[in-house]
Design goal:
Elements (H helix, E strand, L loop, with lengths): L1 H10 L4 E6 L2 E5 H11 L4 E3 L7 E7 L3 H10 L4 E6 L12 E7 L18 E7 L2 E8 L4 E8 L3 H12 L3 E4 L1 H5 L1 H10 L3 E4 L7 H12 L12 H18 L10 E2 L7 E2 L1 H6 L15 H5 L5 H12 L5 H16 L1 H12 L4 H10 L4 H11 L2 H7 L6 H9 L4 H10 L20 H28 L5 E5 L3 E7 L11 E5 L3 E5 L1 H34 L1 H27 L5 E3 L4 E6 L2 H6 L8 E5 L6 E5 L6 H17 L7 E5 L3 E5 L12 H15 L4 E6 L7 H16 L7 E5 L8 H4 L3 E11 L2 E10 L7 H7 L4 H16 L31 H13 L7 H16 L1
Bound molecules: adenosine-5'-triphosphate.
Length: 870
């Protein structure tokens, strides 16, 4: 047996092998040592034909799922090796085979999955300047494929990986050599990452597998001319065949997408806008999803997350969604009923996965059938819908009455967990089964009658018929009555107070009962399998219906949130104006309980109002205002109503944010470096149709460096001849407000405060014009900084203002140690040692400004600053 183990282990080297031995899965050698540590199991030993005993530990087979879940959550792969023949019938060693390898990206068990989240396996096939990506969720049968080419490929691959957030990533060797991709996976992906051999990425092999799996040509799948997407898809399929081994028919089709179908949102923007979870605590509460998610089904929960992360850029598709939301918004009664109906719908997608894989029991079938009960009424409510998307949903929902009927006819109301012990098939479903059952009942009642008959025959008043698993049915006579025992009784067992006997008649009846029992169990299993197979064959009908319910659920959720929170329908068009009247921040307003949220207007266009410079004290609400604008645009483009009195949103192709100091020490970058890398990325990728949220650019370095960068960036983004993107730019560098007079399309705004003595009141109103002051000291006082420190701060401030350096308020004085500070021109920044000055000047002379890209400029600037500081 140990040899058999070694052979199987050799075929599955990078897994922990769960080796079935009777009622246990055992692990040996290194696997045992590792698992005993990870799962806190006792490590024992077993003879293995060598001097030393093999380290061993095990888990009971009936509770293995929890152990596997823990290992998989830690990133291990678990190979499940079963006994694949009946040990009673095996000649010699029982045959064993690996029936499945469970890996983080291929899990289908409910206990290992979060119902509101997809669980993706990602394959990256990168060749030169092109790449194919495939994201597969085996638990729902969802397979999404794309092909990327040219321009910042590694960055875009990372962006897609960030968007899908897979649990497992398979890279081809070339992608594995890209530091950007591997660093990204290491730092930003929660799952496991592995580099697969080049041989797996063979185009011919992959195409062949795809054709065989989907029974169609690449052309039908629209994969022709997309060799990289084909390879990524083929590798994903190959990996699933290797790990799942059965049930692959669950994957019925692919959806081919292109990045350009969606608004571009890079990973840091998703995080900054807190779309799915908050930045600090990583919780759903406090995110946009938390506000918008009123879905009732697990399918809806997964889809709403997906929609929020992928705003659309097609005006027609957005309008379709908005029309549907609008109709559900106005039809409050229908919406409420739909909500209640959908509440009863279980996770049909994942139930179907278990049905197809053959791991669904009677309970899963019943859950499916319960869900189907609500479909006819849902369809009926949608019958007179006017919105195109609701009509499509109406058509797509199949009431599946035949499936529901069959399950209800066949399966009892409360089926047992196991499908192999009987008690699952309802009376009346199969005549043959009912006959055997009747026969068994008859035999049992005969046995019951034997007690009275034998008492009478023998004259033993307290004679009893009993049953145990070892002897079957027996007649029990107490010691005092032994003399009356008839000679035909055969003694079987002697106990302290009694003797147990059998009779010929009893044994015959027993055989009938037990034989019938065995036949019933076998037949029930067979009937159950037929039902399961029938349901499994209806996969595409059920899957389409499940997806339609998911869409309806999300649309109802949007309508419900809009009704509860007082949102309005945005007008979405192809023009380039974003005009928001009395906009609110969807999350901040929901979180605020005691004070009302103060609404504010926004106007951005590609003409007079391209860039808004927003000044105002700390805590005034600058960040809130900028994020609310971004969120309203995003909400409009996912087809949702928005928190405003009115809103017009010209389609925005991307939102970029640069906010706060997000230290990325894990990836070895300083705060300022992260800030500049993000700025560089934005300047390179933004277009005229982008929306930029730039919060305190340049604050991560010294005042003059920071201010210069801030100004240069603002000039670049606002200038129509350069980028000319819609920009909200918050800053404490009040000098920048001068740009309003110098640059076309730049407008100053500030968030008003009222000052009385040393105290300030935040009015939260955005008004035209630059702020007159930063009120940093007043805000510090509000925050509870001790009076002595505050008094000293004011003294220093007066000194600074007296010396004419007030122009650079608020100063980021990290480099200045003693007040009063010297004049900036005389500061350390300018007094370089001659050699450093020479170096910098030489470097500058080498630069050809006309051919510089913004990122190169920033890199040079960064290098020069560093040299100067040194
Ligand atoms: N329009 C509003 N109505 C009511 N409360 C608001 C509004 N805007 C912001 N707030 C409140 O003010 C707090 C501070 O806002 P925010 O973080 O946007 O200020 P800020 O100006 O960006 O500050 P800093 O410059 O220090 O980053 C928010 O947490 C919120 O509670």
């Amino acid at each position: 047996m140990m040899q058999q183990y070694q052979n199987i282990k050799a075929e599955n080297p990078d897994t922990i092998l769960f080796f079935r031995l009777g009622d246990f899965y055992e692990m040996f050698f290194e696997d045992a040592k590792l698992a005993s540590k990870e799962l806190e199991l006792t490590l024992t030993g077993r003879d293995c034909g060598q001097d030393e005993r093999a380290p061993m530990c095990g888990v009971p087979y009936h509770s293995c799922e929890a152990y596997i879940a823990r290992l998989v959550a830690k990133g291990y792969k678990v190979a499940i090796c079963e006994q694949t023949e009946d040990p009673a019938k095996a000649k010699g060693l029982v045959r064993r085979e690996v029936v499945r390898v469970v890996t983080p990206g291929t899990v289908i068990e409910n206990s290992m999955l979060d119902e509101g989240k997809n669980n993706f396996l990602c394959v990256v096939a990168m060749f030169g300047n092109r790449a194919g990506l495939c994201f597969t969720d085996s638990s729902t049968g969802d397979m999404q494929v794309t092909e990327l080419d040219d321009g910042d490929l590694a960055q875009r691959i990372c962006n897609e990986i960030g968007r899908f957030n897979p649990s497992e990533v398979l890279l081809n060797p070339e992608a594995g050599h890209s530091k950007e991709i591997t660093d990204f996976c290491k730092n930003k992906v929660n799952g496991v990452v592995s580099v697969q051999p080049d041989a797996n990425f063979d185009e011919a092999k992959c195409s062949d597998l795809i054709r065989r799996h989907f029974h169609c040509t690449l052309k039908t799948l629209e994969l022709e001319g997309k060799p990289n997407a084909t390879v990524a898809l083929g590798v994903a399929l190959g990996y699933l065949y290797e790990t799942q081994r059965t049930g692959l028919e669950r994957i019925q089709g692919i959806s081919l997408y292109s990045e350009s179908q969606y608004m571009q949102l890079d990973l840091s923007t998703r995080r900054n806008l807190e779309l799915i979870q908050t930045m600090r605590t990583k919780e759903k509460r406090g995110s946009l999803l938390w506000v918008l998610d009123k879905t009732r089904t697990a399918m809806g929960k997964r889809l709403i997350k997906f929609w929020i992360e992928q705003p659309l850029v097609s005006c027609a598709r957005i309008t379709q969604r908005l029309n549907a939301v609008d109709e559900l918004f106005s039809e409050g009664i229908a919406r409420a009923e739909l909500g209640e109906l959908m509440q009863g719908v279980f996770d049909m997608e994942r139930l179907m996965t278990r049905v197809v894989y053959g791991s669904a029991g009677g309970r899963e079938l019943k859950a499916l059938s319960k869900s189907l009960e609500f479909l006819p009424r849902i369809k009926e409510i949608l019958q007179n819908a006017k919105a195109g998307m609701l009509r499509e949903i109406h058509t797509a929902i199949d009431p599946l009455e035949d499936v529901h009927d069959l399950i209800e006819r066949a399966i009892v109301d409360e089926p047992p967990v196991s499908v192999r012990e009987g008690g699952i098939i309802r009376k009346g479903y199969s005549e043959e089964l009912d006959d055997i059952r009747e026969d068994m009942t008859d035999s049992k009642s005969f046995i019951a009658k034997i007690e009275a008959q034998e008492r009478e025959r023998s004259g033993i008043k307290n004679l009893k018929v009993g049953y145990n698993r070892v002897f079957g049915y027996y007649i029990e006579v107490t010691k005092s009555n032994l003399s009356q025992v008839p000679p035909t009784y055969i003694r079987k067992q002697t106990l302290t107070n009694c003797e147990r006997y059998i009779t010929e008649e009893l044994k015959q009846l027993e055989m009938r009962v037990l034989g019938a029992q065995e036949r019933i169990v076998a037949m029930e299993y067979q009937l159950y399998e037929q039902v399961r197979k029938f349901v499994s064959d209806q996969l595409s009908r059920i899957q389409n219906t499940a997806q339609a319910v998911a869409r309806l659920d999300v649309l109802c959720s949007f309508a419900q949130t809009a009704a509860i929170n007082g949102y309005c329908r945005p007008e979405v068009n192809m023009e380039s104006t974003v005009r928001i009247v009395e906009g609110r921040h969807p999350v901040v307003e929901t979180m605020m309980k005691d004070v009302p949220f103060v609404p504010n207007d926004t106007l951005l266009d590609d003409d007079e109002n391209r860039a808004a410079i927003i000044t105002g004290p700390n805590m005034a609400g600058k960040s809130t205002y900028m994020r609310q604008t971004a969120l309203i645009v995003l909400m409009a483009q996912i087809g949702c109503f928005v928190p405003a009195a009115a809103a017009t949103v010209g389609i925005t192709d991307s939102i970029f944010t640069r906010v706060g100091a997000s230290d990325d020490l894990a990836s070895g970058q300083s705060t300022f470096m992260v800030e500049m890398t993000e700025v560089a990325f934005i300047l390179k990728n933004a277009t005229r149709r982008s929306l930029l949220i730039l919060d305190e650019i340049g604050r991560g370095t010294s005042t003059f460096d920071g201010m210069s960068i801030a100004r240069a960036v603002l000039e670049y983004v606002a200038d129509k001849k350069k980028l000319g993107a819609k920009t909200l730019f918050a800053t404490h560098y009040h000098e920048l407000t001068a740009l309003e007079d110098e640059l076309d399309g730049v407008k100053n705004y500030n968030i008003a405060v009222k000052k009385r003595g040393d105290d300030i009141t935040f009015l939260r109103r955005i008004v035209r014009g630059g702020a007159d002051d930063s009120y940093g000291i007043e805000v510090a006082k509000l925050a509870g900084v001790p009076d002595t420190v505050m008094a000293r701060a004011k003294q220093i401030l007066r000194q600074l203002e007296g010396e004419g350096t007030a122009a650079v308020r608020p100063v980021h004085t990290r480099k200045r140690k003693t007040p009063p500070p010297p004049e900036p021109e005389e500061s350390g920044q300018m007094s370089f040692a001659p050699s450093a000055a020479e170096n910098i000047s030489r470097r500058l002379r080498e630069v050809d400004v006309n051919t510089l890209t913004p990122i190169e400029a920033l890199n040079i600037l960064y290098e020069l600053c560093r040299q100067a500081k040194e």
